[in-house]
Specification:
The chain contains 14 helices and 5 strands. It is an alpha/beta fold. It has a 5-stranded parallel beta sheet with strand order 2-3-4-1-5, covered by helices on one side. Helix 11 packs across helix 12. The longest helix has about 35 residues. The protein is elongated and about 70 Å long. It starts with 11 loop residues before the first helix and ends with a helix.
Length: about 350
Amino acid sequence: MTGLFDDIIGHESVIELLEAELTRPAQAYLFVGPQSVGKEAMAFRFAAGLLGGVDDDRARRLALARTHPDLRVLEPEGATSLGVDQAREVVARASLTPVEASRSVFLFPDAGAMTESAANALLKTLEEPLAEVVFLLVAESEDDFPPTVASRCRTVHMGRVPLSSLVEALTDRGLSTDAANGVAVVAGGRPGLALALMSRPEVARFRDLWLSIPGQVTPHPGDGHRLATVVLEQLAPMVDDAVPDDLAKDREQRARRRAEMSLLVSGLEILASWYSDSAALQLGGPIRNSDLDLASLTDVAPRRAVSSAEAVLDAVVDIQANLRRELVLANLFASLGAHE
């Protein structure tokens, strides 16, 4: 299996698991974890191994290009959901004999968008396993599915990659150590985001902007809206660069939403790290952002710093719940200003 997962950054234990699974796979796998950590890339390489066997390089290339006749990639209809008609199509196709390989693989890159009726339709096939069919579902959480579906899948948990692994991978791809560190910090353990941002000059400014916010916040709503606008404006070109140019419109819309979400969460985590550093410094603990002006970290009392960090992380939850991003940010910045 040498070479199948060579371009995957980190996730060594997951790779070891999947390589062992290639010879006798389960019927269904659920790849779960945060956005941009490499779930979809891992699922496609696993699919390539399932279809290509030990030494069929052609089959692997076709699978990675999404053109293998025995690989069916199911994505949401339009920009939002995977519908019941698509699930019924899968059920019908699953009973057909593979064209070239010894099995058929059905891969759902955005399985979390599956409607409840679609999940229930798919469940009928999962309850009656077929030896020559493997399902690969990719989502952020097992909670995105009815328990009856998740329980019939072998779950593959993929977490964030250590900073050192990201830096090593980025320097191997030609970045200087300083630049690689900057990209890795902004990516927040997400290899997909790190690779998309590695050539963007805005990366250093992105971190600087979020770390400067504690010195700019006020309790006035207008200032909160202004800061929110600045953040989103700086985000836009980075989102553009993170989305491939050759995607169909529906896939592009979903890719843009995922990229913007990953960047916003990373930015909020950077902001939260400022407040946690403020509390840690004043209470004698270690700090993460050692390049900051340490005097500025004492401008907020430790108790205020802790509550501010909690408010920032609460905003992450609101952003992930698809609330209006500009409003969430504006309200957050005003509340942080009121804490000062």
